[in-house]
Write a structure and sequence with these properties.
Blueprint lengths: L3 H4 L5 H18 L1 H9 L16 E2 L2 H4 L11 E4 L10 E4 L2 H16 L6 E5 L1 H4 L5 H13 L5 E3 L3 H13 L4 E5 L1 H10 L7 E5 L12 H12 L5 E4 L8 E3 L5 E2 L4 E6 L14 E7 L8 E10 L5 E6 L14
Parallel strand pairs: 1-13, 4-5, 4-6, 6-7, 7-8
Antiparallel strand pairs: 2-3, 8-9, 9-10, 11-12, 12-13, 13-14
Length: about 325
């Protein structure tokens, strides 16, 4: 496939930018939804000299359109979680191997070999619905870990607590990945002292608890698990790549993914670092859908390209981008 060999071999910022510009041209030519959006902005590849010139497609288009840059057969449709009656996002994936390569290489980049870990997943709200890209990834990580102790936990937190204690006694490197409300349930029910376990939250109270700021959540979890840092994963249905935080809510992208921020009053203007703005994601693994997405998250990037998530837009529409009826 075009670009596939290049995506996961990026060695420098210059290589990333050159590939991103080529992917933009490819998607401009092959993605009808994205092409229409660019046309409405009067943005043509000849006008785009730098990644900050690339138009970012509002994420809501995944709710109302088939966002595709390929005519290949769809292998899997990932669906976002949504409140009852709301329209969910659909990410049509034509190459699952590309998704698998993205998350496996990103995990190795940040954490080392998956075979070294026992993977415990506490993701009840995701397990209870179909089409979660997170469940697909974590299920594969569990299988690739090749450990009998690895697995999913729904409501059986007593069994999870005893497994964690057993793994700690064996000094086994462990990844516990969980949704926020379920991790809180665990620390409220059991006193744990984890020295060999990485706690990774994937965000979200999913309506089960009152929303609290990440800093407060992490403090409660640090105290409950007796760990120095809480790790986080930043991903979404519409992406095929994830960023990771090893603490303090500061995320880093793998080499084929980049975050920019846009002005909240002028959606087409990319900001300098250290200013709060709307999060725009470049995910080059999204070659078959759209690699340039304007999310509804608010955040801030630093000079190194690391970023924090500060919140979400209150209004469901991204101002300045609603040029096509959704």
């Amino acid at each position: 496939m075009k670009f596939k060999d290049d995506i996961f071999n990026i060695k420098s910022n210059a290589e990333f930018e050159a590939l991103a510009l080529n992917v933009f041209k490819f998607q401009f030519d092959n993605n009808k939804v994205y092409r229409s959006f660019c046309d409405l902005l009067y943005k043509h590849p000849s006008d785009v000299k730098h990644i900050s010139d690339i138009p970012f497609l509002p994420i809501q288009f995944f709710k109302s359109r088939e966002v595709l840059s390929t005519t290949a057969t769809i292998q899997k449709t990932f669906l976002s979680s949504g409140t009852t009656g709301s329209v969910t996002s659909k990410h049509l994936v034509s190459d699952l191997k590309l998704y698998e390569e993205s998350y496996l290489k990103a995990f190795k980049h940040f954490y080392g070999n998956i075979e070294d870990y026992v993977v415990l997943a506490l993701l009840p709200s995701y397990l209870e619905r179909d089409g979660s890209s997170l469940i697909y990834m974590v299920n594969d990580l569990i299988e690739k870990s090749n450990r009998t102790e690895s697995g999913f936990y729904l409501n059986n937190i007593e069994e999870l607590a005893s497994t964690l204690k057993m793994l700690e006694a064996n000094q086994q490197k462990t990844l516990l990945i969980g949704v926020s409300f379920a991790l809180l349930d665990l620390v409220e029910a059991y006193q744990l002292n984890l020295k060999h376990t990485t706690i990774m939250e994937t965000g979200g109270m999913k309506g089960r608890r009152k929303e609290i700021i990440r800093q407060e959540l992490h403090q409660i979890l640090q105290n409950g698990f007796k760990v120095n840092q809480i790790h986080s994963e930043y991903g979404m249905t519409e992406l095929l790549s994830q960023a990771y935080s090893k603490g303090h809510g500061v995320f880093e992208c793998p080499p084929w993914m980049k975050i920019l921020t846009r002005d909240t009053e002028d959606a087409l203007t990319i900001q300098q670092p250290n200013k709060t703005g709307g999060i725009n994601v470049i995910d080059l693994a999204n070659i078959n859908s759209c690699s340039f997405i304007a999310t509804q998250d608010l955040g801030k990037i630093n000079e190194n390209g690391e970023f924090e998530i500060i919140g979400r837009f209150d209004n469901s529409d991204i101002r300045g981008c609603n040029l096509m009826a959704l």
